Amino acid sequence: MGRPCHFALFELQPAFTVDLQQLAARYRELARAVHPDRFADAGEREQRLALQRAAELNEAYQVLKSAPRRAHYLLGLQGHELPMEATVQDPQFLLQQMELREELESLHETADLAGVAAFKQRLKAAQLHLEEQFAHCWQDAAQRDMAERLMRRMQFLDKLAREVRQLEERLDD
């Protein structure tokens, strides 16, 4: 890899558990240092490099602050190329996905704000549970399939959480 490791940019060891406040503070600090405005009087090459560093830093930050993207990235660092989106060969989870989608649709139809809030809390608890499970198994080669399955589940719940936020915004209007 020609590009620096996302963790190295933030002077962190590759790990699933990340202090998000510390990450955000470090991001702001580094972003100021490479901000293209600081290179307004520099030559064209320095300006281009500053833009490139700012883009790399932003990409690294977006990946590391998102649990599913961080999980995907960590698994990739172990030398396994994984498509970001893949079919989930996980019948039990597919059934759970369908039930969650139906429940969210029902909440949308009834415009039930209290129900949406409760759904959101359950979703957050499920996300934290998956993250804890992933943190325990991602480095264990024997549990590689489980780590990938957990990462796919995290991706789904993350997408569902975005849909819940959009529903809340629509119901608040």
Automatic annotation (TrEMBL):
Pfam families: DnaJ, HSCB_C. CDD domains: DnaJ. The keyword Chaperone applies. PROSITE patterns: DNAJ_2 (PS50076). Residues 5-77 form the J domain. SMART domains: DnaJ. Keywords: Chaperone. Interacts with HscA and stimulates its ATPase activity. Belongs to the HscB family. This is Co-chaperone protein HscB homolog. It comes from Pseudomonas fluvialis. The gene is hscB.
